[in-house]
Amino acid sequence: MLPFALKTPEAHVPYARWHQLPLEAVRLTGGFWASRQDINRRVTLPHGYRMLEQTGTLDNFRVAAGLKQGSYRGKMVFLDSDVYKWLEAVAYELQANPDPALRQQADEVIELVAAAQQSDGYLNTYYQLVEPGARWSDLDFGHELYCAGHLFEAAAAYTRATGTTRLLEVATRFADLIDATFGPGKLQGTCGHPEIELALIKLYRVTGKRAYLDLAKYFIDQRGKGVMRGLGWLKAEYHQDRVPVREQTVVEGHAVRAMYLNTGVADLYLETGEAALRTALEHQWRDMTSGKVFLTGGLGSRYEGEAFGDPYELPADQCYCETCAAIGSVLWNWRMVLMTGEARFADLMERTLYNGVLSGIALAGDSFFYINPLLSRGGYARRPWYDVACCPPNLMRLFASLPQYFVSHDNHGLQVHLYGTGTVRLTLDSGQPVALSMQTDYPWTDTVALTIEESGPAPWQLKLRRPGWCQDASIAVNGQRIENPVIEAGYITLARAWQPGDVVTLHLPMEPVLVEAHPRVDAVRDSVAIQRGPVIYCVEAADHPGVNVLDLRLDIDAPLHAAWRDGALAERMMVIEAPGFAVNPDEWDGELYRRATRRDSLPLQPVPITAIPYFAWGNRGANAMRVWIPRVEAERG
Amino acid sequence: MLPFALKTPEAHVPYARWHQLPLEAVRLTGGFWASRQDINRRVTLPHGYRMLEQTGTLDNFRVAAGLKQGSYRGKMVFLDSDVYKWLEAVAYELQANPDPALRQQADEVIELVAAAQQSDGYLNTYYQLVEPGARWSDLDFGHELYCAGHLFEAAAAYTRATGTTRLLEVATRFADLIDATFGPGKLQGTCGHPEIELALIKLYRVTGKRAYLDLAKYFIDQRGKGVMRGLGWLKAEYHQDRVPVREQTVVEGHAVRAMYLNTGVADLYLETGEAALRTALEHQWRDMTSGKVFLTGGLGSRYEGEAFGDPYELPADQCYCETCAAIGSVLWNWRMVLMTGEARFADLMERTLYNGVLSGIALAGDSFFYINPLLSRGGYARRPWYDVACCPPNLMRLFASLPQYFVSHDNHGLQVHLYGTGTVRLTLDSGQPVALSMQTDYPWTDTVALTIEESGPAPWQLKLRRPGWCQDASIAVNGQRIENPVIEAGYITLARAWQPGDVVTLHLPMEPVLVEAHPRVDAVRDSVAIQRGPVIYCVEAADHPGVNVLDLRLDIDAPLHAAWRDGALAERMMVIEAPGFAVNPDEWDGELYRRATRRDSLPLQPVPITAIPYFAWGNRGANAMRVWIPRVEAERG
Question: Nearest by CB to A597, which of B309, B516, B522?
């Protein structure tokens, strides 16, 4: 029995400008992301369960519960979190598509989790099995609060999806123990890896219990004391512990930690309205987007500490771009959208989803990148699982919960942030029910049709994000083009009394273009990348037999041609064709360094270039790939 | 008492083409390297002693010996080796310049080391104090044999320098224990970090005890079983354990380990003449120099595992280029010179010494780089010491032993590999005494004068390396230019009956030039670097007020002017001046990425560029620096 009533979703977070819809309000019924969700459901979730079983991660709970003999398996202390993230993913899946078999599998896992919980509420199979006396003794690296956070997230999601509270009871017992353990006059400190902050706020939102919000704030306020041990050459910034969050003006250290912390800080702002939190987040966002984000939305320039680098330090080959960091960026940017109502945050969310997130998983759905480079010399391939397996179940929960990022609402109406084929159904604050359908082949084709399926008589506002990549969007209602539509912070805004059958047509011309990076981005100097709509392209060896993709060159005036390709990569997609060149290094003198010659001393051979979406690379075996292509200019053409 | 007679130096290693001279045969008496040796003697060695005391590294021996209460200090298991490397450096120093106070300090340290040795010969303060039951239990990461190797090297050097055998007795007792412990029918395995192989061969050479050579071979033969644990994303190649050494065709994994192992393998070849060893080393050298060595001679492209990268993966900013790896490359290349008589190995040794090694230490001699990047955005500075303090005492022993790399001999005569002001004195195999003096301001000026000070009547051969960077060397004897001198494998060869007073003048024109990298080196694409003689230059923020060095550009046709600069950097040196340009990123649209424009869309402002030797950077506070400068071509000038 819970000592509180369950609350409804994040519908009325006090300082949100826009509000998240309940997951079931939006359904993706076809097209790009529905297909991804389908693979997630059919392939990735069952694969994840098998891997959790095969690697012993589930057995750790059985052993901790006394249901099985054995010892802790796996090399890492934080493996419990993978089970929780899988449960969270299943919860979103069940909320959208009830499935008795999947539900039973998840319920069994929840029983295991419950059975492993200690009598005082503590739950962490590593510490229970390996270091039973050492609870809370290594906050910097022990990940106990991090794992607890993922338990809380899973519990909140599962409760909302199923109405059952078994996992929530486990979570709140542990949360209450943590609350009794940490805080002023109690044990001081916080987790080396942020996560519990945002998770406690989820727990607060589902239970209404204020203590969880206060505890989240306590953990956020503990940061920046510079007491954590760091890693390798990195000091306290690795753990996001260099300066207090309200004074943090740059993104630094471990990229996933930074994103999870900022997500939690954004949630705290959304609950409290404390201006200093928002200001710090705005500063960090500007720092990140002005010099620390890859073209794919990927984050983390260094292997060392999986960390952000200096401004403009954006290497193509040795970038880190952990899949989890890209996912963390989506989580943070989504809160920024809700906080501000500004399209720039949704733009980055979209860039990240289509590129830096999606590259993390094979098209087939059963192997994963942990690191997502923008240049590979070959030999790098996705794997079915990892010793540090944070990314695969993180992708599972993101894909299962994806519809919630498409549309939000406020008391004026609806805001559409992402485009796909599906339906939206909700009751506006005014009490009138509204239903829409969206029809599009986005991101491959450039038209989105929105049909009003249901609407009360009162006028309401429909906001459609005009993507930052699109210079010349146009919009029509019932076939009538709207000249000079109202655009507010990047959102085309249409307000009227909608009639069922009204059709809004958004046209987003997506000619392929070449993009370049700021001149201080030394790593991609004098290079260009191909972008079409939100999709970043790359050249892969598989499409360029007989040529090393490292030798390819592209004229910035080259015509780019978008063409369908079906089947070869197991999915239909648009590829980009262009006339390119290759330098022939055999004409080099055989040395690694030599006296400089003029640029045009190496002859260029014409080579047709075919670029595929970056997210689709690595699906034809390990082979070389590059996003940024060195350019030549017309005098060479 | 030693159970064997001490042997003379490496004078007659069986499979060496050329032989190393005893250290005292060559003295550097002035100029560039003598000044470096002087700072090593006056500043660096005393600083090292203070640091070993201050960090507790010496105390670890006192505690292990029962002379002091306490526990093991320091974060790493291999700290003993720093004491041994300091002792080795002192030994070379004492051999050249007897110094009673320094001798006494070293003798006291040796007594500490002896006192800490256990009764069966074992000696490792970490295992003795922290894991007393765990001897040899973690060969992959425990570094026990690595530390033993540095003890053996110190003992060999100290015995030769002083004729005393106290440290050699400690070393041989430990070596005998290791020999009794490891081998066929005994404990199997080898050390995760190579070092003991080369050290056992040094011990063999000083004692004549064949078992040490056999044991070195045993440890070399243990490699390549793929059983070691690896580190992070790196597997067994991290420990040089992927393939057997005779099948190793590429350099990979941890760069210092690769260099130390190859040094030991080269020594084994020099003793045994086993062709497969030499072939494997030749393959690896070609792999390294065709795509894995930085312009500075630095090695290691990745922080992850301090490791080599893929071919052509040579990032300027996130290169690793550990000082110890550069030193290891000098050690290995020196053996290749002795093995082959080919100048290409000495060329790389010289490149590495003047650049990638020398950057590791401040001009003042009391702070150090562990990592030596070719581009810094600022904020990176040398430190007085490190938790992992391998590099500082490695520099100390290299500088103290430097004269031995200048000249070698064989039964035809002498070979001069490096140029500096000094003297050479030895007895040729024929029995005739020979003495030479060298006079030069190399690497700043282009003339080396060698004067025969003493010579018997029989003709002998003088070989002088023609540096690979020099296209138009010329040579004169007693003012007579030699047209078309005999050049063998990069060595100008003069054979005659030399008379005292004969003067050989080598002229090595060293106009500053721009160099470029192979087109597959993506990181420095379309960039040039300035080189003059063996010295690589860089641009540093301190010389370019008001301009970000990341914005500098250089026309490949720009005139380069060499000029003396005295004092400002505490030493006289040649700087290079050139008319350059700066792009103004304020004219960029403020985004990190944008639609590509033509290259000439950003205006260039003329900016005078001053380049300083790379080794001298970072001596005016932490400031930005770059070696590779993006180029513009004449149409922009």
Answer: B516
Q: Is B637 on the interface with A (CB under 8 A)?
A: no
**Of A194, A64, A619, A143, which is closest to residue A388 (Cα–Cα)?**
A143
Interface of B with A in 286-305 (CB under 8 A): 289-291, 293, 295, 301-304
Domain borders along chain B are: 31-221, 223-360, 414-507, 513-635
Candidates B302, B593, B595, B623, partner chain A, best to mutate (most A CBs within 10 A): B593
Contact A510, A290 (CB under 8 A): no
Cβ(A285)–Cβ(A266) below 8 Å = no
Give the pairing type, strands A604-613 and A535-540.
antiparallel
Judged by CB atoms within 8 Å, which residues 298-357 of B form the interface with A?
A: 301-304, 309-313, 315-318
Say if residues A626 and A375 touch (Cβ distance below 8 Å): yes
Say which residue the tokens 């030797």 belong to: B613
What sign results for the dihedral spanned by CA atoms B454, B460, B463, B464?
A: positive
- At residue A368, what are phi and psi to the nearest 5 degrees? -140, 145
Task: Write out the H or E segment, with its range, that includes residue A81.
Answer: helix A80-96
A373 min Cα distance to partner chain B (Å): 13
Residue B8: count of CB within 10 angstroms of its CB: 11
Q: Do B309 and A318 touch (CB under 8 A)?
A: yes
Q: Which structure tokens are listed for B452?
A: 């025969």
Strand partners, B539: B611, B626
Distance between start and end Cα atoms, chain B: 74
pTM over 0.80: yes
CATH number given to B414-507? 2.60.40
Q: Which residues pair with B569 in a beta bridge?
A: none
CB contact A546 to B (< 8 Å): no
CB B171 within 8 A of CB B152: yes
B434: phi then psi, degrees, rounded to nearest 5:
-135, 140
Give the separation between CA A392 and CA A369, rounded to whole angstroms.
8
Q: Which two tokens stand for residue A499?
A: 């009639």
Per-residue pLDDT of B564-616, as tens digits, reads 998 766 678 999 999 999 998 887 877 999 999 887 677 899 999 999 999 99
Q: Is B292 helix (H, G, I), strand (E, B) or coil?
A: coil
Rounded-to-integer distance, Cα B513 and Cα B529, Å:
8
In contact, B515 and A594? CB cutoff 8 Å? yes
Looking at this predicted complex, what is its ipTM? 0.95
Instruction: Count the helices and strands in chain A (H runs, E runs).
Output: 15, 24
The encoded tokens of residue B539 equal 């641009």
- By the 8 A CB rule, do A179 and A129 touch? no
| Band of pLDDT at residue A636, cut at 50, 70 and 90 | very low
Residues in chain A: 637
Backbone angles phi, psi at B496, to 5 degrees: -165, 170
Specify the amino acid at residue B461.
Q
Contact B183, B219 (CB under 8 A): no
Q: What order of strands is seen across the sheet that includes strand A433-440?
A: A26-30, A421-427, A433-440, A447-454, A503-507, A474-477, A480-481
Percent of chain B with pLDDT over 90: 91
What distance in Å separates the CA atoms of residue A251 and residue A300, rounded to the nearest whole number?
Answer: 10
Using the predicted structure, report yes or no on whether residue A427 has a pLDDT greater than 70. yes
Q: Does A234 touch chain B (CB under 8 A)?
A: no
Interchain proximity A520–B585, CB inside 8 Å: yes
Counting one residue from A and one from B, how many pairs have CB atoms under 8 Å apart? 162
**Pick from A464, A543, A471: nearest CA to A511:** A471
The SS3 assignment for B210 reads: helix
Q: Kindly report, residue by residue over B535-568, the tens digit of the pLDDT.
A: 999 999 999 999 999 999 999 899 999 999 987 6
The closest CB to that of A518, out of B315, B517, B585, belongs to: B585
DSSP reduced 3-state for B632? strand
